[in-house]
Every structure is written in structure tokens, then in C-alpha cells.
Amino acid sequence: MPLLKNKSDSYDLQLIFHDDLVELYDRQLNTSISIDFLKGPLAHRQQFGGGRGQAIAKAIGMRSGVTPSVLDTTAGMAGDAFVLATLGCSITLLERSPIIFALIEDAVQRASLNESFTEILEQGFNIVNREAGDYIAEQIEDGGTAPDVIYIDPMYPQKKKSALVKKDMQILQRLHGADDNAGELLDSALSFARKRVVVKRPIQAETISEKKPNTCIKSKKTRYDIYTIEKM
Fold it and tell me: Which of 51, 205, 225, 228 is the most buried (most CB within 10 A)?
């Protein structure tokens, strides 16, 4: 399925449906991306990522006896959502790109044949193809159940050619464009979340709005800005 044309009127991105896999092929980068929850980087991260002691778990307020429900407003390749799900969180993933949504949906369908992932689905691992601001507004209007935590991972700032981000992130940047509404999304999230909003940023990056976080948790390359609404 051709998706995105370049200036020469040829298609740079193609969504390819195999019998056992859906992948996105980028002609410019000559590479394909797909999502797999059972092997590769995500499986390695689940096994060796540090469990509840890792920064993202601490940032969302996970501790002994406390496992928050999470709304991930910027699912992307679903890596962070998967990690939180393996730690016991009920999670809803929002992905505005129908293309990336198709990759996540395919990964869920394949993983659902595995018993360990079935347990994750039963506790709550729901994917929704919606723009986050619209979804939150509808939930507020309809009286939907608010999550304990809303997680925001905006597109990282563009790097110079000498320090390009990984190829899968380059493809995401082409599909999503700039996250110019990240500040507005933070406002919406703060009006809906029960406990806190967590924003993932590069370690030295500016905050996504003039609102300053209550605190932050840092790892080697990443900072999690925490906007506290209520103590867990």
C-alpha cells in the first residue's frame, strides 16, 4: 500500500502486508520498520530494563502496592507502553497516525497468540487511533473514567545530519511532523488525569510549555517531567 509521495511523484513510504507481518518500508532510508513485543529490543528491554526500578516506572509513580492506570497519548512504536504493561499497568495507547496504528495493531494480534501477552491484554492494553486532544476532550464531555497518569512523549527536537536519530524515529518524524501542539496537549492532560502527567524529554531539552514541572526524574539521556495533580 503506497502512502507518501516525494517531489518526483514516487512513493517513499509503503505499508507492506505479509502473511505473518505488517511492515513499513522507507525507500529513502532503504529500511523497514515493524513492531514485535515478543522478541528483539522490546523483549530485551522487558527482561533487562530494570523492572520497577527504572526511571519511567518511578516517574509514573509506581511503587510497592501502587500500579497506576496510564493513558499514553503518543504511542509511537509502543515501546514505553509495552514496558509499563509488563510491569502491571492497565494502559490505553493513543496513536494519531493510521499507519503506525496498523503496525501496533499487527504486533498485538501476533503477540496475542502467546500466553504471557494474553495476561497483558486481560489487565488492559487498548490501542485507539485518535488524536490525543480530541480523545481527551470527548472523554471529559462524556464523563469517561480518568486515568491515574497521562504520559506524553512528544517528537524529540530535530537533530543535525551529523547526529540523526535512529531510522525508526526518522520515519515517525516524517509521518507525524512537528509536535506544535505539545503545550496544548499538556493543558488537556492536566485537566483530565487523576494523579499526574508525565512528559518525556531529552535530558537537556526545554520543557514543552511555560508550565514548570513539580519535579523530574532523570536517566542517562532522558528526563521525565512530572506535573503532580494529587499524591498517589
Answer: 225
Domain 36-228 has CATH 3.40.50.11260: no
pLDDT tens per residue across span 63-122: 989 999 999 999 999 999 999 999 999 999 999 999 999 999 999 999 998 888 888 999
**What distances in angstroms separate CA 130 from CA 82, 92, 108, 138, 187, one per listed residue?**
19, 11, 17, 11, 18
- Compute the distance between CA of residue 119 and CA of residue 219 in angstroms, rounded to an integer: 29
Parse the chain into domains and list their residue ranges: 36-228
User: Quick one: cell of 214?
Assistant: 513539580
Is the separation of the CB atoms in 70 and 147 below 8 Å?
A: yes
Residue 16 β-bridge partners: 23
pTM confidence score: 0.88
Give the three cell numbers for residue 24: 513499513
The candidate with the shortest Cα–Cα distance to 221, out of 178, 171, 166, 179, is: 166
